[in-house]
Amino acid sequence: MTGAASDQSVLLDLKAVSQTFHSKRGALPAVRDVSLSVGRGEVLCLVGESGCGKTTTARMAAGLAKPVAGSVEFEGADIWQLGKRERVAYRKAVQFIHQDPYASLNPIRTVYATLAAPLRKHGLAGSRKDAWEQAAALLARVEMTPAANFLNKYPHQLSGGQRQRVAVARALALGPRLIVADEATSMLDVSIRVGVLRMLSKLRQELDVGFVFITHDLAIARHFGTGGRIAVMYLGRVVEHGRTEDVIGDPQHPYTKALLSAVPDLAPGPRRDPGLRGVDIPDLAALPSGCTFHPRCPLYVPGTCDAVEPELLEAAGREVACHVVAGQADAAPADDTREKTGGGV
Amino acid sequence: MPVLSVRDLRIGYRSGGRLVEAVRGVDFDLYPNEALALVGESGSGKSTLGLGLLRLLPRTGQITGGEVRYRAPGGDQVEATDYDVLSLEGTRLRRFRWSEAAMVFQGAMNAFNPVLRIGEQFADTMRAHAPEGRLGREDIRERAGDCLRSVRLEPGQVLGSYPHELSGGMRQRALIALAMVLEPRVLILDEPTTALDLLTQRAIVDMLQELRAERGFAMIFISHDLALASELADRVATMYAGRIIESGTADDLFREPRHPYTAGLIGAVPTVHGGALEPVSIPGAPPDLARLPAGCSFASRCSYAVDECRTTDPGLLMVTDRPAGETSHEAACLRWEAVRMPAMALQDEEAGK
User: Fold this and answer.
1) Which of A272, A278, B280, B284 gives a 20 to 30 Å CA spacing to B112?
2) What is the DSSP string of B38-71?
3) Domain hosting residue B345, numbered range
4) What CATH number is given to the structural domain containing B118?
């Protein structure tokens, strides 16, 4: 069972969504046929390299971009078919946190003004005093206390970590049920990054908020996604999807394996050469045939991998899109398909 | 003998009519064929230091003191070299850059001229910086091709391309090739893989290790990424608020850090392999360089700090019995003997309760 716990608790459901951009070089299929869901209070990490479609997927999940195919449902309703009132409710329920708090916070607004704006716009604060008290409570939620020290400050007077906390506080102002965070900690210095992550984890538990958490950093995904799920994306598709512990601890897809073995790590561990056949990631405008990973894949089987695009299938308790892994699953137990196909053992 | 010896280097930036020191008295030696990592967070002075070594500071920056001594042994027809880089001017400075020491920056897009083909940029660089300056077209093609192949690029494809026609990873490798083309003895790399994807980063890091072994240059690797530094470097120096606060072999520094900031940084990094200790962030934020506190600049964030730390800046202290040199371990902390990794310190605390 790799989907969200049960239908009742599903918050967000991406059903076979695709997104295509158009450039001078032609159509860029940024996301192709991605189906993922997030439950209440659950975390789903989207990981992958640049151009894998994780940010585009996140933008569709947050209703910031409309898929060209497939649908996005929030609490059972297609978000692009909502009436006016439901649309406002959806906008309050789903919040997006950007990578760069410097860019996302208005530099001429104080912290108070930033936090009070959504409260007042949605009629959640009656008076200035009320707005002030709610803003202070939001700052306490993101561990910026005493709030009075921060409410009158401007973004440039805050550290990077504090700015990102304010961005989180603003996202919390409308009582969201789902937060979509795009590389929310990647611009922060190492020494403060885990503090912000821990704060986000605490909010998830205390407020029962679901998270779609986008990161290129597998260690961050392992840490923040503990108890949740990870979807590994490559060139617009999900190639592996399962419980965080399974995907990080026992990766199945050769791309996930390559990524994990490429992570520089302070913890001493056996490092295996991923054995990739190519260094450079292919161009979205000219996707390889069959499995798009085949030109780099160490398990490449000519005639199969370059001919047919693999489906995302159940394997080893998660979903994997790989012909070789699927073959292994059928012929289990198998140690190394390459050698078996090569010389009849 | 070190190829580069930096002594009491000070670099400031003019800001609002005053000079704020971003590098506040840095000493280190770089030995031939050694990889030294300078690690630190934003504002620690690591990039300023790198730029200062090659005298490539922006207009507002200024070297205010110290010495950067460059040494090269003599050969059959070459005299031994020994000079202070800070005293070089004009042609001699230009020759030092690139043919003795070259730098690779983070954003390869900005390092290349966007309207010139890569091949022309190789030719320009070689003509402008080569000691003899008389290089034939064939020479240039051959040497450029050689360097490009060593970073796994196809010269026929790359030399005729404009920078924007290459992917980020290819551009960054082309830039490393360009930095190596005059066979410098020192290569300074400032976050060379930060903007790149994991698999590309891994390929470049592995390539750099091979190239260093093959070509024998010394390398200064500037990075915020401790794990990457631990893999790539023989020696590591941690920077904080414009100073080196700890330096030692990569093993010493990452297994037995003796400065609370280094230990804190290591403890703050989540890992993917092995049983993860819970990462712990460092409280507070780095000090404002324009208003530095008295004593140790880390004291306000430090759980080990005692009163003396707020009045005395200890400078680097020897923390091993090994002699000064390539294997010494130094830390600028009065309480270095007490320093432990944060997660272990927490465990001890809990066990004690």
Assistant:
1) A278
2) EE--TTSSHHHHHHHHTT---TTEEEEEEEEEEE
3) 256-352
4) 3.40.50.300
